[in-house]
Amino acid sequence: MLSENYNVKISDEALETVLELAPHYMHSLRLPDKPISWLDTACVKVEINRPDDCARRELKEEAGVEFKDLIKLTDFHNSPGYSDELFHLYMARVESIGDMEPDGDEEMDMERVIIPMTEALRMIDDQEIVDAKTIIGLLMAARRLSVHS
Q1: Against a cut of 0.70, is the pTM above it?
Q2: N or C: which end of the chain has fewer CB atoms below 10 A?
Q3: Active site amino acids
């Protein structure tokens, strides 16, 4: 499943190593969550080399969106010094909006809400939107589109 979701090949040696080492290093998780979490993280790191593929898959799963163009807005580290995770933010020109295709528990409770950019900017000002990556993405997209609140 992970190899299909992330379009990577997971070798038998990698599986055996994760099953052997995970119980010793991930004390907050239980089997089978430990090795699955490690493999998921490893697959994501491989996939980060193809952020446009990830964006295409996530937009389809979480919003039911197919897009034509993917426009790079910025890259940023959310917590330098704590994590080396690099966020890639894009803006997409939407081709169609269809049914969401949830791929796990995380997406099952998601609700798609379409908000005009000026309204989203007002929501940032009124602290209704407080997630850092969402704020950065909306402000960068508004700037690119020359939209003002």
Answers
A1: no
A2: N
A3: 106
